[in-house]
Amino acid sequence: MSSTSKNIESVLVETRVFPPDERATKGARISGMAAYEALCKEAETDFDGFWTRLARENIQWTKPFTRTLDESNAPFYQWFGDGELNASANCLDKHIGTPTENKTAIIFEADDGAVTKITYKDLLTRVSQFANALKAQGIRKGDRVIVYMPMTIEGVIAMQACARIGATHSVVFGGFSAKALQERIIDAGAVAVITANYQLRGGKELPLKAIVDDGIAQGGCTTIKTVLVYERTLTDWKRVEGRDISFTEALAEVEGQGPCAPEPVNAEHPLFILYTSGSTGKPKGVQHATGGYLLWAKLTMDWTFDLRPEDVFWCTADIGWITGHTYVAYGPLAAGATQVVFEGIPTYPSAGRFWQMIEKHKVSIFYTAPTAIRSLIKAAESDEKSHPDRFDLSSLRILGTVGEPINPEAWMWYHRNIGRERCPIVDTFWQTETGGHVITPLPGATPLVPGSCTLPLPGIMAAIVDETGKDLPNGAGGMLVIKRPWPSMIRTIWNDPERFRKSYFPEEMGGTIYLAGDGAVRSADRGYFRITGRIDDVLNVSGHRLGTMEIESALVSKTDLVAEAAVVGRPDDVTGEAVCAFVVLKRGRPTEDEARQIAADLRNWVAKEIGPIAKPKDIRFGDNLPKTRSGKIMRRLLRSIAKGEAITQDTSTLENPAILEQLGQAY
Ligand code: ATP
Ligand code: MG
Question: What is the pTM of this model?
Fold first, then answer.
């Protein structure tokens, strides 16, 4: 095969393999591949029995279920549908009377470094009191409540208290605008907003309550009766009489009341609605059920993170994202872990903050996003003092990533500099819609390959298919699907069941198979999954299928020059589609002449790494890339820029609008 016709899916073959060593396998919950395979086998031979067993072993049911999976109304699947439980009881009450009750549940580190610890027993007391306060405000089972809170113990309490009374929460990330908030309040028909006067991030005091006022003032939020305000700082806030009440006042009203008994709900009762980040269009209200979601949150803590009683777990995600739901607000508590909750940002007071906190709290499991890793690599290289080498990271046992494909280069840096070549990295693939991990290595079993999320968890029937739903062989790129339902899957899109069906269960594939929306390829040798980007991120250049992720990885592998890169396509008369690259350099922004030279160098580099067919036609340089507030690249914006279109999309979730101007010039 000549290099020009070389298919993208066969290149950048990663040959490095890191099998788990004895430290990782010894005593692991799933130890060795044989143990993993045995669980997969159990799920394949007796699907119903497998899930029944796990749901009985891992969840406390107030009313046991008799039906495991009901497929009669597919794709509106129901799990454990006649069972009853309470999510908060499964996270808190369950530990009372066990050694866990006096264990630290949360180590909270504030923006300014102040540390507060709370035990399981005390957390239960506070959740119970706040649940009473919510009831006193007239909030009932089935009501929707918006949570617009900073990363704090109170943020977790707000979510748990909603779950305790059977109210469905919808957390909105504290960086979202008034407009985004208003849209979500209206779509969810929320009766209350739980917020804070201000939040503290990077030494700055940023308003939350004022944005809630703004959002509601934009109109249409007629269902809102109450706004509860946590006074995070001493700064005054403006009160709307008859609607607003502070936490202190709301708690005072219920002082002396006994504990709030957890409200049993049906397993299918909506625990929460979470609007996806919007990197691909109008936000969707992803609805999750109580029983199946909680089961998977608990179980993946045990499986993916191999959680042990002495672990200190730290997931850096905000509670405004699914990762902060499953691996901050629910999973760690359901599993009885001690976890770190961090209010601030990774770069304040210096880019060594994460490493310093790992040292200080003796974190043993650290879970973060590739975007954070990439920015900290850049910082470590330019600022000696924030280099991880300066910190004692010996407490670390397991590392994880989530949110985007991780480039092999960034993976290796994480492995060397943070894991010190001792810690398995779990590259967890999942989505808001999947509720928890679906494809991920197991730290005590799976040989790791940088940049690969490896294999599906037991019971997750993932596959790669073509447009018609036909299975593709290893080595061929296609669409990632999950062929059988699983307990923590999305139940519907709130208010829009038709969109649910159309987006995730396409008719052409039979209407019952879950379409993830991501492209993937399995390696020829191990059958490992590698995510190649979203389905709409596969380009067709002169008849060659190019994964944008591959080209990005090639660009970023020019480590002396490139800090970050994003690739999208634009229509081209000659080649069908043309490759357009957006590049952040490690050095400052180049002059015109330098930009031309660097662009030429990068084209040659890509040609050498992948093949001339993948050479970017346009290259644009910026200090950063346009990202959502969860740190994901906004590809739909890049596509508009690449096409030279005016930007008409909703940019309400865009973090750094100024970057757009820098990207105007193509080289
Ligand atoms: P929207 O659906 O609104 O566009 P989003 O997809 O960015 O938002 P999430 O549900 O938070 O919102 O992200 C899930 C997506 O993130 C996946 O579909 C995938 O594209 C990407 N992703 C998550 N984890 C990984 C991973 N480990 N490897 C590769 N991609 C990942
Ligand atoms: Mg998505």
Answer: 0.87
